[in-house]
Amino acid sequence: MEPEPPGEGGGEGEAEPGEEGLIEFYGSFKEMFEFFCKNTTIHGTVRLVCSGRNRAKTAFWTLLLLASLAMLYWQFALMFSQFWAYPVVLTMSVDSEPKMFPAVTVCNLDPYRFEPISEQLEQLEHMAEESLTFLYGPTASARLSHRRDRDKDRDRNKERDNDKDRDRDKDKAIPVQPQANLSSNFRLSQNFSLVRMWEPGAGRKHSRVGFRLCNSTGGDCFYSSHASGTAALQEWFRFHFINLLAQLPPALARHPRRFQDLVYSCQYDGEPCRPSDYVPFHHPVFGSCYTFNSKGTDPFWRATKPGIPYGLSLILRAEQQEHIPLLSTVAGVKVMIHSHNQTPFLEHEGFHIRPGIATTIGIRQDQVNRLGGNYGKCTTDGADVAVELLYNSSYTLQACLHSCFQRAMLRHCGCGYVYYPLPAGARYCDYRRQPAWGNWYWYYCYYCYH
């Protein structure tokens, strides 16, 4: 046998005629361009090779493709130039017309010790001392007792100093029907004691303090507990205090102190304030309150110039004559700036000013116009809202929420929350008539706000 000549016999690594190689190179740029145009997903490129016999058609598609690419890169250039310029869209308007000064509410953070419930309030403070002794030993309760006795001595001294002023102002006081002491009718309940609750597996250093609220059958109990013993004691005290306030007639519960007891000096635009410039009311927690320019219709309160000398200037007496330490833990005044004919919800939008300092508050008005329509359901005066307001003021979100909550309380408990207004014929809740109202209230508030 003769050996096969080199290159014959189909050795390994050699491609047979007609087979496609692993890597192929185009013979010309034209072949590569035709392959790209026929296989790419860019619209219109296939027309460049399919219409090769018609030069006019090829030229048209070439110009159209180049124009499209030019517009594409032009849009890229615009977007990048706008991005790197960091544009800010701002619309400003300067209004030099006189504006009506906003309403201002000021409270003295000194709630009343009402005479009809004074005996029960002292019993409640003794119960608080016993709870502190049980939880933290006699040292903590001794501090509270010493502070309470000191406040009583101070109140007696001030009472003697103010006897002449009170006799002089008897004719100006709001007439209130005398009420009998409620000691024979209402008793503080011992069923809501403060207890220490140990967390499972957390050890003795990780415990919570709270009290238990159950339904009318004694089941479905809800524990109002706090990691802080001070917060738990204040919550427990306020719960009992709410039940005491429910015993007061509405006229007595909303009777404020004299204007001079809080406001030493009042001026607006350099002119002294008049009795018609403020509306008094009493808040169960924040004490005696006064709202200046509540209606916003008096031309006296029209602001014509900016600056401190042309605004409202107040010198306030931050005294706590009837201090209830577990109810009001802040000294000074509570302030809220709000719109006219609006109920001031100080617990949500108010701020504190501590005593002994001069405070300047600047005001800037921001007006927001809701678009409504496709952007959401909006209301202007609350007329199209299903909830009927219990407040004799204009519509606000907080007024709507409080009115809705109060009506829910009336449906579920048959009574109302003492901090909110009542519709005609309704009564406030207390655990003598409605023993389980606290269970529903705290359970509802927990799942709404947590």
Give an overview of the whole structure:
The strands form four sheets. The protein has a five-stranded antiparallel β-sheet with strand order 8-9-2-12-13, with no helix packed on it. Among the domains are: 29-85, no CATH class; 368-449, Helix Hairpins, CATH 1.10.287. The protein contains eleven helices and 13 strands. Strand 8 and strand 9 (287-292) form a beta hairpin. The radius of gyration is 39 Å and the shape is elongated. The chain has helices at residues 29-39, 46-50, 55-85, 118-136, 138-161, 163-168, 229-245, 250-253, 346-349, 397-413, 437-449, and strands at 99-100, 103-107, 195-198, 207-213, 222-226, 263-268, 271-272, 278-283, 287-292, 302-303, 312-316, 333-338, 351-353. With 450 residues, it is α+β, with helices and mostly antiparallel strands. It is found in: Cell membrane. It catalyses: Na(+)(in) = Na(+)(out). InterPro entries: ENaC (IPR001873), ENaC_chordates (IPR004724), ENaC_CS (IPR020903). It is a multi-pass membrane protein.
